[in-house]
């Protein structure tokens, strides 16, 4: 058997697989790249190629040492950005497969959605957002990495659908499961968006418990029920509710409007209350803690130093923009927590001594 025959058989089977998807699903054949590519002798579809390109980047590799909530955690079982995106992928793929939507697209976007995160998670992001004239958001920076920074500036040339799902995955505090909030998004992008929330709420609750940061005795109502629930049970209940209430997306019913990925009103309200509780009792207090303020100080110190000593930034990063602030931001965003600490200790010895919570 030669490779051209293998490739031909693969894409014939891919067409059959796509024909079994929901009418509302994104089909691989409709995807486009900024620079067209030859599919001859390939045995992966476009979204599978995107997934593999993401996995093999330096940006993806560095996620293993980037904070989720706790800053530079010492314990081996605390969530990092890498374990987070893997969990998002698992939840997203389960939902997509159940609803006959494009699982490969969801997998690729899930794995790539946090490539643009800074060291120290949202703390670092907030600092850069205050410094840069046009602000900073990790979703936008993920796209910059994909298009302009990876592969020595060549970029990854990912498909339009994967890029859109990555760019639009983020959600502000409060209610986010509304038709207006997902207007213009593919169903697969909506899955990534909700899988992201389900994943981080579940593993962040585990981290909050493990650290003793939150005492469940002080929690009331159904928020306490979800907080004390076994992790697998919590995820299963939310995912099941999404699948049941999004069943129209599977295309098994004749409907005149494009459906959306959604939850029942009850679960949507409970998820919002749980999410608001985590912001008020975990995310914001961690950011406002001594450790959080130390992390913010580290990012500010790094930015000031490299802005005033620009030639110390690697040469390959000095030509990606006409704005020196953007280039300094690019360099800092590429740092892991540990690398940022090593660099800032060289610049300002002792600055990171209050970085770690003792019990994590």
N-to-C order of helices and strands: HHHHHHHHHHHHHHH
The CATH superfamily bears the name Hypothetical protein af1432
CATH class: Mainly Alpha
Q: Specify Rg, calculated over alpha carbons.
A: 21 Å
**Secondary structural class:** mainly alpha
Got a strand count? 0
Quickly count the domains.
1
Number of helices: 15
Q: Tell me what the CATH architecture is.
A: Orthogonal Bundle
Terminal Cα span: 55 Å
Q: Which percent band covers the strand fraction?
A: under 5%
- Overall geometry comes to globular
The overall pLDDT, averaged over residues, is 91
CATH topology label? Hypothetical protein af1432
Major sheet, described briefly? none
Unreliable segments of 5+ consecutive residues: none
Commentary on this structure:
The chain has 360 residues and is mostly helical. It has one domain (45-250, 261-347): Hypothetical protein af1432 (Orthogonal Bundle), CATH 1.10.3210.10. Helices cover 56% and strands 0% of the residues. It has 15 helices and no strands. Helix 5 packs across helix 9. The radius of gyration is 21 Å and the shape is globular. The model has no long low-confidence stretch (mean pLDDT 91).
């Amino acid at each position: 058997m030669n490779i051209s025959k293998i490739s031909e058989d693969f894409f014939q089977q891919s067409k059959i697989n796509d024909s079994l998807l929901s009418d509302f699903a994104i089909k691989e054949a409709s995807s486009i790249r900024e620079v067209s590519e030859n599919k001859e002798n390939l045995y992966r579809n476009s979204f599978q190629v995107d997934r593999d390109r993401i996995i093999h980047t330096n940006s993806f590799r560095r996620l293993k040492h980037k904070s989720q909530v706790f800053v530079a955690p010492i314990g081996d079982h605390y969530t990092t950005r890498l374990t987070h995106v893997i969990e998002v992928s698992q939840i997203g793929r389960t939902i997509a497969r159940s609803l006959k939507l494009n699982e490969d697209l969801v997998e690729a976007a899930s794995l790539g959605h946090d490539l643009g995160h800074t060291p120290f998670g949202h703390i670092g992001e907030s600092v850069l957002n205050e410094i840069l004239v046009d602000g900073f958001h990790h979703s936008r920076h993920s796209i910059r990495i994909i298009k302009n920074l990876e592969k020595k500036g060549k970029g990854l040339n990912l498909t339009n659908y994967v890029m859109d799902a990555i760019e639009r995955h983020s959600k502000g505090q409060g209610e986010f499961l509304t038709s207006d909030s997902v207007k213009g998004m593919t169903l697969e992008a909506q899955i990534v968006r909700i899988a992201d929330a389900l994943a981080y709420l579940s593993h962040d609750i585990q981290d909050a418990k493990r650290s003793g940061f939150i005492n469940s005795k002080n929690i009331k109502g159904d928020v306490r029920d979800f907080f004390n629930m076994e992790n697998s049970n919590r995820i299963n209940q939310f995912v099941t509710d999404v699948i049941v209430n999004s069943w129209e997306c599977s295309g098994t019913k004749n409907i005149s409007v494009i459906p959306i990925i959604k939850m029942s009103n009850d679960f949507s309200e409970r998820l919002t209350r749980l999410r608001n509780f985590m912001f008020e009792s975990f995310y914001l207090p961690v950011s406002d803690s001594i450790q959080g303020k130390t992390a913010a100080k580290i990012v500010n110190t790094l930015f000031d130093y490299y802005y005033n000593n620009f030639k110390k930034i690697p040469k390959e990063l000095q030509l990606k923009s006409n704005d020196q602030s953007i280039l300094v931001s690019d360099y800092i965003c590429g740092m892991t927590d540990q690398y940022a600490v090593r660099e800032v200790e060289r610049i300002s010895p002792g600055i990171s001594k209050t970085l770690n919570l003792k019990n994590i």
